[in-house]
Design a protein that fits this description.
mainly beta; two-stranded antiparallel ribbon; 21% strand
């Protein structure tokens, strides 16, 4: 039986399924949102994936707006939120270009 230390290198290819549409990765210099009663900045301290995240310094009734094109195959929206412990509630409303916002904002 052989003894000692061995190193093994295995090549692994990882790709995201094509059925997902990336809405924003917050990489670069443009956060991709407009804000009302809030200040937006790109942050490299609190990051889940990639090298930057969107940081929002907000006041009561802050509103972020972004226009994105989705297909019928896009059935889910996923968010990662790092809260500040203030107890403020995050909600989201989605609408079609030619329709009013959903009457059921998230979270339910």
């Amino acid at each position: 039986m052989a003894s000692g230390n061995y190193a093994v290198t295995i090549s692994v290819s990882v790709t995201a399924p094509a059925k997902y549409t990336l809405l924003s990765d917050f990489e670069g210099s443009d956060p991709g949102f407009s804000a009302q009663n809030a200040t937006l900045s790109l942050n490299d301290t609190q990051v889940r994936y990639g090298s930057q995240s969107l940081q929002v310094a907000y006041q009561n009734d802050a509103k972020l707006t972004a226009s994105r094109t989705l297909t019928q195959a896009d059935r889910y929206v996923s968010l990662w939120v790092y809260g500040d412990g203030s107890g403020s509630i995050l909600s989201a409303a989605f609408s079609y270009e030619d329709a009013p916002p959903s009457p059921n904002p998230w979270p339910p």
